[in-house]
Amino acid sequence: MRRRAACLQLLALLLCCAATAADVQPVLRLAANYWEPYTGAELPGNGLAAEIVATALQRAGYATAIDIMPWSRVLSNAYNGQSDGVVAIWPTAQRRARILYSDSYLSNELHLFFLRPELGDRSSMDALTGLRIGVMRGYDYSDNFLLHDNFQVLPVDRVVQNLLKLSVDRIDMLLEDKRIVAYNLRHRSDELRGLPPLRHSATPLLTLPLHFGMSRRHPQAEQVIAAFNAQLAHMRKDGTLAAILRRFDEAQPIKFTVGN
């Protein structure tokens, strides 16, 4: 009788342990760079892109731990397997060899920002001849953009540096996402005091799809990406993705003068 009771207690304990183990979500350690407001250490939920990715993965049964670091480390950590994946990344042929990409969950529309009204009609790469264009160092905008040699590309490490260079006529235009420029104007106002109102091109010069990526070194990379894509499709269908974007944009409205 005692033996039977002991066996029942042991069975109950094993079942309890199995249930507890089943309830524990696998944790994905993801890397992201200082790319406010999309990703950043001091942003709620680590930023807009991080919130979208973490929500889709949580629905797919994965917990996330996001480490914020410089972009060069983001790539190297993903390439060598120190990080399981990357929160936000633009696709290139070189990166596809080491990163497995999800479906795109956002698009970055990169506009040309400027101060001089006469630059308002410079909205194509061919129209930028002779101009100095401020960009971010190490970013793969597109092969088409980087191969154009009719304008000068001047890279910096921080968006605020390009805004300051624009204010003192060290560049003619800067190429950037509107949300990123708006964030810097709002949160770097002390550094940008005296900057005249910005104008931007009516249409984006580049539109780059933004993806979640898994290191190909991760043994379940394909499974994670498939699960993410399925949940992202559900988020589009049930309005979750649109709600996240609407809440973010309503909290941080974007106001610029368009064109000349």
TrEMBL record:
Residues 46-248 form the Solute-binding protein family 3/N-terminal domain. Keywords: Signal. Gene3D superfamilies: Periplasmic binding protein-like II. It comes from the Bacteria. The keyword Signal applies. It holds the Pfam family SBP_bac_3. Residues 1-21 form the signal peptide. PANTHER family: ABC TRANSPORTER SUBSTRATE-BINDING PROTEIN, MEMBRANE-BOUND LYTIC MUREIN TRANSGLYCOSYLASE F. This is Transporter substrate-binding domain-containing protein. The lineage of its organism: Bacteria, Pseudomonadati, Pseudomonadota, Betaproteobacteria, Burkholderiales.
